[in-house]
Amino acid sequence: MAVDATPASTLVLNPDELGPDPTPGMDLAVTLGIGHLEIRSAEGANAVTLPVDRLRHIRALAEERGLTVAALASPLWKWCRPEVTPGKVDSFGFPTQVPAEDRERWVDRALAAADILGTGRVRVFSHLSVGEQTETFVDDPLLTYALKAAERAGVRLLLENEPVCTVAEPGPLLEVLREHTGLGLWLDLGNLYEVGHGTAAAVEALAPYVEYVHVKDYVPRDDGMKQFVAAGAGDVPYADLLPVLHRVRPALPYALETHVRETPGDALTRGATFLRRAVPGGLA
Known about the structure:
Layout: E1 10-13, H1 22-32, E2 36-39, E3 41-42, E4 45-46, H2 52-64, E5 68-72, H3 100-117, E6 121-124, H4 141-153, E7 156-160, H5 170-179, E8 183-188, H6 189-194, H7 200-206, E9 210-215, E10 217-220, E11 226-229, H8 238-248, E12 253-256, H9 264-278
Parallel strand pairs: 1-2, 1-12, 2-5, 6-7, 7-8, 8-9, 9-12
Antiparallel strand pairs: 3-4, 10-11
Helix pairs in contact: 3-4
């Protein structure tokens, strides 16, 4: 299966932002003129855990609406060993403690799910940070296995810069991406800002490796937590970051990830409007 060719400057919507039933999110995508979906969870379960018939059903629902799946937001490597207790982690219905002997099976399962959904992009992470028992990612033999399996399947594995995982800052990201040339970058600009590197210089350094973009926004709360808001309404300096990214990589899908619980549909609608203005040349 060839990697799907999402056109330059496109918007992507994740239906599970609106709840476990994927149809309201798909219908909102149609209303907003968004033709591509990111699948992370559905029907109350992580997508990689769904049986074949449910994955086929999700794809059929999308195709009935003229939508295609741009990416599978898998939870691969957002895990630690069973004997280690991680902190609070949102893994969307997937276990965070995974025995080493089970991990290869989950890689195979994610690649199979991507094939059923009709996408050539699969997100991966880089192990949860859990103190002295944290595993390393760059030399993980499972990564070598996964990259070879993905190449055979015509799939690109894309590493997200996740703050609770081991590889989140520009330096370590560049180290992994240069070491493993078959791995691309799933750049979350909000996460980059969260770890103190939401700068034009950081984006310019990472941009050659970017193949997919997550967009979310937030403002800090008095209790030290984040209050998620519609893209463009928070503190992430998109006005500085998006032109730099677009200049180096003009052919990217931009996926809205709001995390806004109270009014997710409104946040997605406002975020789509913002991105269509903010990305040079606009977004389809």
